[in-house]
Write a structure and sequence with these properties.
Layout (H helix, E strand, L loop, with lengths): L3 H14 L4 E6 L1 H5 L24 H4 L2 H6 L1 H15 L6 H12 L2 E6 L5 H5 L4 E3 L2 E8 L7 E3 L19 E5 L8 H11 L5 E5 L6 H12 L4 E4 L12 E3 L3 H13 L9
Parallel strand pairs: 1-2, 1-7, 2-3, 7-8, 8-9
Antiparallel strand pairs: 4-5, 4-6
Helix pairs in contact: 1-10, 6-10
């Protein structure tokens, strides 16, 4: 499953972890892709074409502007994505991170994913920086209606608020919108705390708030690990670059950590 280099890196990171008490994880679409969750674009993506049937890009449709001006169109595609993802669930990678939270003194997860898989797997200290699509809120700034759903199968498209009859929307950051204030405040608090090691898993690290924890750790000589088969914005600066799928690498790392140091793993 792993080449020799990745096997050696996994052993080295496992040895590092034995010296750690706190871990900061950053996760992206690559981790949830191991659950069979499709991305918007790319191999297996929902929208590989440049435009949708309306002649707009998916980024234009699933945006704050379209939600405000044409919520029926925005919800048409949001509900399609939710339906496609409905059967998926957390994978072994999410489970390993949740198990680590029970073992180490302090573990924090910063995720770009809006699927809620980390929480479902058992992680408690999660910053879902883009929100969770299971949470729905009223679009009106004067209405505090909020609810949580398991799926969208029972919703009208678009759904209306039972209190003020304005449009309901997912409590997530749509394209063109600013980040959620409470999540950013929590992230800033965590970044001011000391962590013994920082992981970047399954993310291209394009956004500054996703790459910055790794860059900060690198400047402070805190060990950094990237698990991603692709070259990303941070690949050149991390201490350990494991070019493997997220779930498989995390599972192998956790097994190696739990095995006796410098002994082969049992099959």
């Amino acid at each position: 499953m792993f080449n020799k280099r990745d096997q050696e890196l996994i052993e080295q990171v496992a040895d590092r972890l034995r010296q750690c008490q706190s871990i900061f994880f950053i996760t992206g679409a690559g981790l949830s892709a191991d659950s069979g969750l499709p991305t918007y674009r790319g191999i297996g993506g929902l929208y590989n074409q440049d435009t949708t049937e309306e002649g707009l890009t998916i980024e234009q449709i699933i945006s704050g502007q379209t939600m405000a001006e044409n919520p029926k169109l925005a919800w048409k595609y949001i509900s399609r994505i939710e339906q496609t993802c409905r059967a998926a669930s957390f994978n072994r990678g999410h489970e390993v991170i949740a198990e680590m939270e029970k073992h180490f003194e302090r573990v924090c997860v910063l995720t770009q994913n809006i699927d809620g898989f980390h929480q479902a797997a058992g992680s408690r200290n999660v910053i879902d920086i883009h929100g969770d699509y299971h949470d729905l809120i009223c679009s009106s700034p004067h209405c505090w209606y909020r609810t949580r759903v398991t799926d969208y199968s029972h919703l009208d498209i678009p759904p209306y608020c039972p209190r003020c009859h304005d449009i309901i929307r997912p409590a997530v950051v749509l394209f063109g919108e600013v980040l959620l204030k409470d999540r950013m405040e929590k992230l800033m608090q965590e970044l001011h705390r000391d962590y013994d090691i920082v992981f970047s898993i399954g993310t291209t690290s394009l956004f500054p708030y996703i790459s910055e924890p790794v860059r900060q750790a690198h400047k402070r000589q805190i060990p950094t690990v990237e698990i991603n088969p692709d070259i990303t914005e941070i690949s050149a600066i991390v201490d350990y670059k494991i070019e493997a799928s997220s779930a498989a690498a995390l599972d192998a790392l956790w097994k190696r950590f739990q095995a006796e140091p410098n002994t082969p793993e049992s099959n």
